[in-house]
Amino acid sequence: MKLDIEIKKPNTQTVQFRIDPDTKQMLTFLRKHYGCTSGVLLKQMIKQSYESISIPKGTSLFSK
Fold this sequence. Notes:
Elements: H1 21-34, H2 38-52
């Protein structure tokens, strides 16, 4: 997966989560590789993952 990282002032909210030590080490490596913060990195990963799944036509992004 190649991420298209664009570093700019974020329009975001704070999110907290817990990860195991191995995942933390991988996240740190990715942050250093892409030269960005965890938030920017995760945002791009979520965006690419979302785009890779097929969403039925007419389905609202926010429907329950």
